[in-house]
Design brief:
elongated, 9 helices, alpha/beta
């Protein structure tokens, strides 16, 4: 990633996430990758703009890959790069790009090294060395099977802790903008009572976005207001004005949230 002095503050880099797997759609598996990918992208200065979940279906994956990669700087996928017959993400991405599927020699070497003392590389395990032609590898220190990068697409494992290792290997390698920072103010108030204040405060601080997240606790309604921007000074000024505005309405804001 470029250092801060070379970052264009007006340039917003975006990414999409494609979550692949029948087990997600059936409810048997609860996805944990969306939050960790979104958090990681924020630090890289890349905004996660959309998420789509599709089944292990070739046509559905191809359609989603082509749509999402075309309107975002990056596309990340999770799931479907394992050793079984229904792991078809590599095939679908290759089809979307119009390239062949090949065995990556470095991926094969990684698998042979990892599985050497674990029974060796069989036909199923060798599937994890298959990549779309022209792809590079994303290191995976946990299980030997690498992730895959091709064009603006990054294929990650569906298992969250393995996906996290792949994201760690990618840290600092993608071009992005300024990291998105945030601050939070909580208040025991119905968000409908402060809707005008939130809108006016956001409009008064260009570059800020205020998200309102209501809750019900202790028999009372409240909300946490999250202020996001790429400049900490802007966030601080927005938070100060919001605290003042809440006080003017007879409400006490809590820095850091409730």
């Amino acid at each position: 990633m470029s250092d801060a002095s070379r970052i264009d503050p007006a340039r917003i880099w975006t990414a999409a996430l494609l979550v692949i797997g029948d087990e997600i759609l059936s409810g048997r598996t609860h996805d944990k990758n969306i939050a960790q990918v979104a958090t990681w992208l924020n630090v890289q200065g890349i905004r996660l703009k959309e998420v789509r979940v599709v089944a292990d279906d070739m046509a559905a994956i191809v359609e989603a890959v082509n749509a999402l990669r075309a309107r975002n700087d990056y596309l990340f996928t999770t799931g479907g790069i394992g050793p079984t017959h229904d792991d078809i993400t590599v095939d679908a991405v290759a089809a979307a790009l119009g390239v062949e599927v090949v065995i990556h020699p470095a991926a094969r070497a990684m698998l042979e090294d990892y599985y050497g003392p674990r029974g060796g590389v069989n036909e199923a395990r060798l599937r994890m060395a298959r990549v779309p032609a022209g792809a590079t590898l994303i290191e995976n220190a946990l299980s030997g099977a690498p992730g895959i990068a091709v064009a603006n697409i990054h294929l990650l494992a569906g298992v969250p802790h393995i996906a996290a290792e792949m994201l760690a290997a990618l840290t600092g390698t993608l071009q992005g903008g300024l990291p998105v920072l945030s601050g939070t103010i909580g208040c025991w108030v119905a968000e409908s009572e402060v809707a005008d204040l939130l809108r006016e405060t956001e409009q008064a601080h260009q570059g800020c976005q205020i998200g309102s997240y209501p809750f019900f606790r202790e028999g009372k309604v409240g909300a946490n207001f999250v202020i996001r921007a790429t400049d900490q000074d802007i966030i601080d000024a927005c938070m100060a004005d919001l605290m003042t505005g809440l006080a003017a309405l007879g409400r006490q804001g809590v820095t850091g949230g409730i």
